[in-house]
Amino acid sequence: MPWSNQSGGGGGPWGQRGGSGGGGKSPWGSGGPQGNGAPPDLEDILRRSQDRLKDFLPGGGGSMGSKGLAILVLGVIAVWLLTGFYTVRPNEVGINMIFGRYTGTTGEGLRYNLPYPIGRVIKPNVTEQQRIEVGYRSTSGQARPRDVIEESLMLTGDENIIDIDFDVVWQVNAARAQDFVFNLQNPQGTIKSVAESAMREVVGRRNIQAILTTEQASVAQEVRQIMQEALDAYGAGVLVNVVQLQAAQPPSEVRQAFFDVNAAQQDAVRVQNEAQTFASRVVPEARGEAARTVQQAEAYREQSVADASGQAARFRQVYEEYRKAPDVIRERMFIETMERVLGGVDKIIIDPNSGQGVVPYLPLNELQSRPQQPQPQANAPVQQGAMR
Asked: In sequence order, what DSSP letters do the residues of 4-34 get, joined into one string?
């Protein structure tokens, strides 16, 4: 028997059975709680417990001790293997490693990997939207953000300095989460440096006026694209979702002077626009008036040429007739001329052969009171005066 401290009388580890009155000793020693003896000895209890554990220690008790040790070791190994189960939430991705080497990625649900120290699991959050502030730092409450000029001051393409504050919203790329875990030691610092470098590159290709007014959206989009390309080249496993400009303005030291110059430039543009408007109204009017004058001159020329051509044609016709009968034509021309000369005036014709010694009667009062008749046209018929 392994219980070397027991007497040859047997009775198990708690002492010899039997005794006076047919009663035995309890595990607590002589008498025990139910007997009439003294209280149990604590040192005796500890000694007996140490003797009992010898069977489970190597060389402590023969075949029974080796079997117990094997069972104990197998139990410990089983419990250790059970600790390898882990849960991946919907917003996470499991990164499995064996002896520090990446072995694969797991999705949501109950998964298994060898437990520590052989295996290890990292579960990064791939849905959280994280924000990085560049050029300023926001404060709690209603206080104004703190400006970080070493990040915000940038040189534009026309050699001006501009103060730009912007945000970068990013998240872990679920398809490349292992790159984010293994390749980025300081994600916040790396992404901020890439964002600042990309913004300086984009601002350096543009004029300050365009950045302050019309091209802020295109600047943000171009910065996001450059950042994504750079981070992909680094193997960062990061998705850049949004680049948003918070403020773009001249430095505080020259801000008022810049606004004054800008106002003067706007006034110059306004005056130029007004001048162009006036020119666009006056120039067409002047051109129309010039075209009308030219048309009137051309019409007068055509009329004058036509009248002269008609007079020349008429003269040639008269001349042809004159060549045929000069006397008749001469007399006719004389009569027509007299008709034109004397046709529009009052006339009194006295026939010298009407009688002698008769004083002619001249109605002077009627001649003075009679209204003047219009001068007949050159081609009007000849009026014959009344003969008295």
From this structure: TTS-TT---TT-----GGG---BTTBSSTTT
Q: Would you write out the chain's pLDDT as a tens digit for each of its 388 residues?
A: 334 343 344 444 444 444 434 444 444 444 444 444 555 666 777 667 666 655 555 555 444 457 777 888 888 888 888 888 888 898 899 999 999 888 888 888 888 888 888 889 989 999 999 999 999 988 776 667 888 889 999 999 988 889 999 999 999 999 999 999 999 889 999 999 999 999 999 999 999 888 988 899 999 999 999 999 999 999 999 999 999 999 888 887 777 777 787 788 888 989 999 998 888 888 888 999 999 999 999 999 999 999 999 999 988 888 888 888 888 888 888 888 888 888 777 766 666 666 565 566 666 666 666 555 555 454 444 443 333 3
Residue partners of 377: CB distance under 8 A and separation at least 6 = none
Task: Answer whether the bond into residue 145 is a cis peptide, omega within 30°.
Answer: no
SS3 87: strand
Round to whole Å and give the CA distance between 162 and 206: 11
Of 203, 250, 193, 239, nearest to 223 by C-alpha is 203
**Rounded Cα gap, residues 273 and 267, in angstroms:** 10
- The residues with which 27 forms a beta bridge, in sequence order, are none
If phi > 0 it is left, if psi is from -120 to 50 it is alpha, else beta; for residue 237 that is: left
Residue written as token pair 């020259």: 254
d(CA 216, CA 95): 39
Taking the mean position of all CA atoms in its chain, how far away is CA 210? Answer: 13
Torsion of CA 187, 189, 192, 194, to 10 degrees: -80
Alpha helices in the chain (DSSP H): 42-52, 63-82, 149-152, 177-183, 187-203, 208-212, 216-234, 255-324, 326-342, 364-369
pTM score, two decimals?
0.53
